[in-house]
Fold these 2 entries.
Entry 1:
Amino acid sequence: MSNRTFSTRQARWRQDRASLMQVRHKVFVDEQGVPAEIEMDKADAHAIHLLAEDSAGNPIGTIRLLSNGQIGRMAVLKAWRGNGVGSALMTMILNHPAAISGPPPFLNAQTQAIPFYRYHGFIPVGEVFLEAGIPHRRMEIPAYDQSKI
Ligand SMILES: CC(C)(COP(=O)(O)OP(=O)(O)OC[C@H]1O[C@@H](n2cnc3c(N)ncnc32)[C@H](O)[C@@H]1OP(=O)(O)O)[C@@H](O)C(=O)NCCC(=O)NCCS
C-alpha cells in the first residue's frame, strides 16, 4: 500500500454528477467497453453516491448504494488502483447509515473482481451470468442474511 493521498466523501448526484461520470466513463466505457447508455441508468438520481478525490480535488473513484441494498459502480481510475481507494469507498458505504439500517447489501460482481469483494466479506451466490457482455456473479455478506441465522 503506498501513501498517495486521497479523500472520500458522500457526493450529491446533482452537484457531483460530472465528477462521478468522469470516473465511471473512463473505467466502464473507455476501458471495459460497456455501452454508455447502460452505464448511466435511472437509479443514479436516487442512489447514495460516494466519491474519492486526489489531493487536488480531481475525481479518482466512485461507488453507489441503491435503496434495495445493491452496491455498484465500484470504479477506481487505473492509475490509482492498488492504493486502497476501492477499499476506502467500500468500507465507507458499508458503514453508511442507509446500508446499516436498510436491506442487506449485495452486488453483482464482475468475476475478475470477486477477490476484491471477498476481501470485504462478500461471498459469491448462484451462477455466473452475463451483463453488458461481462461475466458477473451475485455476492452477499453472509452476516446480513437474517433468513439463514
Ligand atoms: C476493483 C477495484 C475497484 C479495486 O479498487 P482498488 O482501489 O484497486 O482496490 P484496493 O487498493 O482497495 O485493494 C484492496 C485489496 O483488494 C485486492 N484487489 C483489488 N482489486 C482486485 C482484483 N481485481 N482482483 C484481485 N484482488 C484485487 C488488492 O490487491 C488489495 O489487497 P491488499 O490490500 O492485500 O493488497 C479496481 O480495480 C477497479 O476499479 N477495477 C476496474 C473496475 C471494476 O472492475 N469494478 C468492479 C466492477 S464489479
Entry 2:
Amino acid sequence: MASTDFSRVAEVEAVIICVPTPLNKNREPDISYIIETGKAIAPFIGKYEGRSMKDEGGKQNPEGTMPKLVVLESTTYPGTTDEDLRAVLEAGSGLKAGVDFHLAFSPEREDPGNPQSVVKSIPKVIGGFTPACLERTKELYGKAIQTLVPVSSCRAAEATKLLENIFRSVNIALVNELKLVYGAMGIDVWEVINAAKTKPFGFMPFYPGPGLGGHCIPIDPFYLTWKAREYGQITRFIELAGEVNTAMPLYVINRTAEALNSHRKAVNGSRVLVIGLAYKPNVDDDRESPSYHLLDLLKERGATAAYYVRMSR
Ligand SMILES: NC(=O)c1ccc[n+]([C@@H]2O[C@H](COP(=O)([O-])OP(=O)(O)OC[C@H]3O[C@@H](n4cnc5c(N)ncnc54)[C@H](O)[C@@H]3O)[C@@H](O)[C@H]2O)c1
C-alpha cells in the first residue's frame, strides 16, 4: 500500500530508493533527494514491525532478525551509496552498514515508450556493500527479475549505469556531428546510417536529432565529470559530446532560417509549428526536451512559435 509515512519502513524487510538525481543550477550533481530520503528512513532501518515480528510488537534491532536491506536505484556517481547514503543512514540510525543493515546499489534500467520492454526480462546489475549485502540483494531481485548481474561493489554498479548513459550521449553526439559534416558534403546521414547498420557485427546505429532530452542522457554523464575532478581526472569525451549535443537546437534553427530564406521569407514574422514536445516518440516525458530550446530560439528571432502534442488517452 502506498504511504507517505516513513515510520512504516519499520514494517518492511527491504527499501528501494529511486528518487530524482538532477543537476543544480551550476550543473553539478544534486543528490539532496537521496540524502533527504536517507535521513527520513534512517530512524526506522533498525526497527522490525513486520509480519515476522508482529507478536513481539516490534523491537529495536532484535536478535535473530535479518538486517533490513536498503537499495539505491537512482542514477548517480560512484561513491554515492557507500559514502553519502551510508553516512546518513549510519548517522540517523546509530547502526553500521554491512553489520546491522544491508546496503546495495542496483541501477534502474527502463526503455520508456517501448511496449516490448518488460522489466522482468531486463538483466539487473547489482552491487553490494559487502558480500552478504549482495546475497540479500540477489534474493530480493531474484523474485522478480530473470537475470541478475552481480558486480563486485556498489561503485562498480554505479559506474556501470554511467557507462551505459555516457555511451549513448557520446554516440548520439558522433552522429549529430556526422549529420553536419555529411550534410555539408551533400550526403544524407540517414541513408548512411541505414546502410551501415546492415553490418551484422561491430556496429550499433544511433540517430541524429535536434538535441538531447529526458531525465537521463543530458544529465547523468555530468555526474561522472563532477566526481572525476575529485580524482584529478578530465572527462573529455563527455564534455565534447555535451558541447556537440547542446549546439543542435541552434543548428536546427539555422537550417529553418535557410529553408525560409529559400522561399524569400525571414524567421522574423513567420509562424512556425513545432511538432512534439517529448524527447523521444511515444513518451509523455518532456524533461530537458530540446523542443523548448527550439521554441525559445524561434521566439527570440521574432517568429510566432506554437507546438503540437498528441494527448494520450
Ligand atoms: N525515468 C526513467 O526512465 C529512468 C531510467 C533509468 C534510471 N532512472 C533514474 O531513476 C531516478 C528517478 O527517476 P524518475 O524519472 O523515476 O524520477 P521521477 O521524477 O519520476 O521521481 C521518482 C519518484 O521519486 C519521488 N520523489 C521525489 N522526491 C522525493 C523525495 N524527496 N522523497 C521521496 N520521494 C520523492 C517522486 O514522487 C516519484 O514517485 C533518477 O536517478 C533517474 O536518473 C530513470
